[in-house]
Design brief:
Helix content: 25-40%
CATH class of the domain at 45-59 and 89-239: Alpha Beta
CATH architecture of the domain at 45-59 and 89-239: 3-Layer(aba) Sandwich
Bound molecules: adenosine-5'-triphosphate, magnesium ion
CATH topology of the domain at 45-59 and 89-239: Rossmann fold
Order of helices and strands: HEEEHEEHEHHHEHEEE
Number of strands: 10
Strand content: 25-35%
Strand order of the largest sheet: 6-7-8-3-9-10
Largest sheet: 6 strands, mixed
């Protein structure tokens, strides 16, 4: 049994992440911008959730708060029963390194490193011991379908393949929560679908929870829940009974 299968996971349907009364104001006085207000949400464990909304509606701001990259002006975030707002920046860094995986629009791979080395680098950032690395890195690459290409550098890979390597890097420490800001925005629809299939596989077989943002209407049919933001507020929350991936 692998470490992933052996680890206790939240039962599907329990809340893994909860936000209550979130407000985020940038700047002060006349220049103040209220990016988020009155946000309440529950993210069920083992689900795929998409945040959608126009540019400037607050998607990235909310994702940053949910992943403890940023602190709200008001309100609290509880991750696996533990409040993560109000932690010190060292505690937040440790939380992200150990328990959360992050994926970005622009992949963020190191150009001179092979796919393997990029993922291994992620492992070292998570503070894992070197002796376990090879197996964990290869397993992560296998899970995104990139093990055969592990010696290739990012410039030798398509955008979709690069994003899958970036996902391998984000999951190599086996986090329960994967947070992805516009992970398919730079990909054509075929490659975007490959990335969404990888997310679905992680949700189904590892019980991971994926929270992502997107502009793409096609993605809405692939996730379990869609949260629509308008002007920093939640406008609607809808669920898909039968998502298409
Ligand atoms: N560091 C900051 N300082 C001041 N204002 C900010 C800052 N970050 C975001 N904002 C403002 O907060 C609002 C929400 O921005 P955010 O980046 O969350 O939007 P978004 O929905 O992710 O947009 P996009 O789809 O373009 O990525 C915008 O009005 C933005 O200008
Ligand atoms: Mg954004």
């Amino acid at each position: 049994m692998s470490a992933v299968q052996g680890r206790r996971r939240e039962a599907s349907g329990n809340t893994i992440l909860q936000a209550t009364g979130i407000k985020r104001v940038f700047g002060k006085g006349n220049a103040a911008v209220t990016a988020l207000a009155d946000i309440h949400l529950d993210i069920p464990a083992g689900s795929m959730v998409a945040l959608k909304g126009r540019s400037g509606s607050g998607k990235t701001t909310l994702l940053n708060i949910l992943s403890s990259l940023d602190e709200p002006t008001e309100g609290k975030v509880v991750f696996r029963g533990r409040e993560i707002t109000g932690l010190s920046s060292a505690e937040r860094n440790a939380l992200r390194r150990k328990e959360i995986g992050l994926v970005f629009q622009s992949f963020g791979l190191v150009p001179l490193m092979s796919a393997y080395e990029n993922v291994e680098f992620g492992m070292r950032i998570a503070g894992k011991s070197l002796k376990d690395n090879r197996e964990a890195v290869e397993r992560a690459l296998e899970r995104v379908g990139m093990r055969e290409r592990m010696k290739h550098r990012p410039t030798e890979l398509s955008g979709g393949e690069q994003q899958r390597v970036a996902i391998a890097r984000a999951i190599v420490h086996e986090p329960d929560l994967l947070i992805a800001d516009e992970p398919t925005a730079e990909l054509d629809s075929r490659m975007g679908l490959q990335v969404m299939r990888v997310f679905r596989e992680l949700v189904q077989h590892s019980g991971m929870t994926v929270v992502m943002t997107t502009h793409d209407p096609g993605i809405m049919e692939l996730v379990d829940h869609v949260i629509a933001l308008e002007d920093g507020k939640i406008a609607s929350y809808t669920s898909n009974e039968s998502p298409l991936v």
